[in-house]
């Protein structure tokens, strides 16, 4: 498509997909800020939802295969171009599956009845007998922050050649800033109408967050990248919302660069460490929290999703269930003294977007309405697949088709 055609491009949603779309639009060879106006509309704040509260795992073994290799490569290129290691914690890591038996809370490593002391934990975890138990379970040498008595087995899923990570909030907000520097206008406001007479996009009406006044802006191209809120913008979209809780912990000692998918057998007398949740909670016999070690001595841990609370109006209205966060803290504490003795720094919740069709998602591309594109339904791999999605959407707009990957299987028109 000719670069001298005037365009009014509106991106709906300021999560990772919207921000990478804005970034790659401004890096496309055809982008001309004198001819192309790009507005990013976000209801609450940039990275206010899952894009700011996810784990940030990147993997060549993620899905869908049609965009994963492209996105993984783009992550590396972005980090190289914009100092990602420093600015958003980009690094290659190991990833593994850990099977463990949880300890009753209050029980320290190797101590069934004796109260834990700082000296006993440090020495016990690193004496020859303890390290021998970890080696026998297949635990790598540097992954010594799990209780030897708890670990049953370990299997590597990924290594630094095919697995990496970023800090989602820092990555997403950096993409927004870099796009803004190239001419993108970021507006906080909730979209109320996408006007499309004769099946062609004409304008977008939104309610300004600060003034509560409605504004209508012209549009030649609209990208719906509203994550779990996509259906509220475009009711035909088969996108559902799944609530997910997570915590961040500052470990009592530095931990190695690993992402760990756990399977923990919880004892019947598991108990709890919290002081603010009074009533007893039912625990499953097996729980599966994920633990991601981050730079700067931080660990991120998340639990299973739920659909108990409907999707609220915006990310600012998301409710956090303290009991569910405490469950995550208790589960990971039951297999790691470093996490149990660390400081819980954040308790949070967000909603993940899932495609309600057998084919799964995400949905990337044209919708059947001229000028209306969709980029949504990325489930738990939104951070991983954000760069590829943004690049592909920029190609749809400026080239008329996706050029960097074959994504026919992700065509929204198949399910709309």
3D architecture notes:
The protein is of the alpha+beta class and about 425 residues long. The chain is about 25% helix and about 30% strand. It is built from eleven helices and 19 strands. β15 (about 290-295) and β16 (about 300) form a beta hairpin. It starts with 6 loop residues before the first strand and ends in a 17-residue tail after the last helix. Mean pLDDT is about 90; it is low at about 110-125 and about 275-280.
Q: Top keywords for this entry?
A:
416 residues, alpha+beta, 8-stranded mixed sheet, 11 helices
| Count of beta strands | 19
Biggest sheet descriptor: 8 strands, mixed
Structural class: alpha+beta
Shape: elongated
Helix content: 25-40%
Q: Gyration radius, to the nearest Å?
A: 23 Å
The low-confidence runs, each spanning 5 or more residues with pLDDT under 50, are: 110-126, 275-280
With strands numbered from the N-terminus, the spatial order across the biggest sheet is 10-9-8-2-1-11-19-18
Could you tell me the mean pLDDT? 91
- Please work out how many helical segments DSSP would assign: 11
Order of helices and strands: EHEHEHHEEHHEEHEEEEHEEEEEHHEEEH
Distance between the termini: 26 Å
Strand content: 25-35%
């Amino acid at each position: 498509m000719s670069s001298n055609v005037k365009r009014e491009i509106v991106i709906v949603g300021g999560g990772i997909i919207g921000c990478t779309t804005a970034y790659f639009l401004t890096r496309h060879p055809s982008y001309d800020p004198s001819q192309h106006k790009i507005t990013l509309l976000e209801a609450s704040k940039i990275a206010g939802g899952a894009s700011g509260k996810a784990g940030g795992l990147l993997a060549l073994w993620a899905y869908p295969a049609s965009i994963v290799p492209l996105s993984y490569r783009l992550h590396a290129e972005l980090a190289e171009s914009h100092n990602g290691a420093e600015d958003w914690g980009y690094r290659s890591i190991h990833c593994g599956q850990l099977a463990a038996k949880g300890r009753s809370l209050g029980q320290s490593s190797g101590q069934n009845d004796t109260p834990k002391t700082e000296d006993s934990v440090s020495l016990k975890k690193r004496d020859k007998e303890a390290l021998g138990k970890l080696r026998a379970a297949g635990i790598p040498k540097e992954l010594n922050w799990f209780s030897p008595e708890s670990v049953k087995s370990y299997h590597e899923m990924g290594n630094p050649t095919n697995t990496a990570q970023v800090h989602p909030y820092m990555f997403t907000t950096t993409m927004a800033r870099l796009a803004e520097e190239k001419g993108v206008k970021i507006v906080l406001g909730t979209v109320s109408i996408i006007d499309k007479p004769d099946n062609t996009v004409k304008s977008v009406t939104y309610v300004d967050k600060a003034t509560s006044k409605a504004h209508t802006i012209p549009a030649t191209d609209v990208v719906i990248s509203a994550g779990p809120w996509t259906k509220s913008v475009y009711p035909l979209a088969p996108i559902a919302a799944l609530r997910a809780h997570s915590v961040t912990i500052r470990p009592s000692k530095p931990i190695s660069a690993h992402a760990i998918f756990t399977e923990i057998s919880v004892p019947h007398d598991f108990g709890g460490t919290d002081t603010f949740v009074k009533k007893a909670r039912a625990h499953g016999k097996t729980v599966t929290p994920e633990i991601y070690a981050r730079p700067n001595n931080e660990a991120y841990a998340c639990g299973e999703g739920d659909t108990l609370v409907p999707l609220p109006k915006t990310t600012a209205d998301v409710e956090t269930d303290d009991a569910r966060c405490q469950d995550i803290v208790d589960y990971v504490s039951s297999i790691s003294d470093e996490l149990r003795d660390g400081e819980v720094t954040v308790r949070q919740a967000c909603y993940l977007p899932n495609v309600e069709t057998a084919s799964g998602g995400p949905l990337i591309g044209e919708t059947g309405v001229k000028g209306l594109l969709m980029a949504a339904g990325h489930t738990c791999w939104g951070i991983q697949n954000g760069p590829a999605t943004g690049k592909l959407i920029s190609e749809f707009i400026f080239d008329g088709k996706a050029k960097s990957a074959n994504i026919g299987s992700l065509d929204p028109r198949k399910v709309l």
